[in-house]
Amino acid sequence: MAAELGAILTAMVTPFDARGELHEDAAVRLMDHLLDHGSDGLVLCGTTGEAPTLSDEEKLRLIRLGVEEGRRSHPGSTIVAGVGTNDTRHTVAFAQRATELRPDALLVVNPYYNKPSRRGLIRHFEEVAKATDLPIVLYNIPQRTAQDMPNDLLEELGRIERIAAVKQANPDNLAKLDGLQIYAGNDDMLADVLDLGEPGGVLVASHLVGEEMRRMVDEPQRRHEIDRGLHDVYGGLTIAPLACSVKAALSLMGIEVGPPRLPYVALDPAELQAVRQLLERHGLLAAAA
Description:
By secondary structure, the protein is of the alpha/beta class. The protein has helices at residues 24-36, 56-73, 88-100, 118-130, 142-145, 151-157, 190-195, 206-218, 223-236, 242-252, 269-281, 284-288, and strands at residues 8-11, 41-44, 78-82, 105-109, 136-140, 163-168, 181-184, 200-203.
């Protein structure tokens, strides 16, 4: 299933207007830009999309835009909807509502902060899987959830009907998994994931260098050379939370996506200058002009 989602899936930032409200027109423009520049599909309402600060209704509006507008303008593109929370009842209810909009898959993170037991994790994902007929992509990101899902647990979860893949953001766990396909959860893991014969990645730098990341899929003999040339992009964007630095970079490139929402804040002058220099090194400001 996961291979059918595509190789380069961009975890899209969520555009806001000057009042901090969801900017639907800007979202459609950004979707078109990303799908024109290397992305096979989009992951909406993820961490980089500032999902923790989006209401359920805003998330549904964004997913609907992706399904309707993304597919209309780019037939064959895919939409993965982030639906995970740390409340099983809320996740189940929202998964049901998102499923009605017919994205291609759902992304479900393990519950954060409350850190359930292994049995609790399994029960959580069993209940979510019952709530949809769509494929589910698990999301393992211990640096945010404070809880790793080890590979033996992932394989056990992969035996649940409809759980088909994992977005793996723990490089220490990177290995083939029985019953699950793997998507890179960090940009700097993409080359290694592709080397394993896995489909691709859920990526952030692809907002800026999507065509180069696409070449890592299409030109395997040059994969690691291309990857090495992008490591300063991967690292440079971590100068601030990724939603903040990517939004700043896109704005500098002339793609307006608005400010982040609190508790995220816009880059300070030194951070903004560092992002500007990063774009200049890669010729992205010249391309925007």
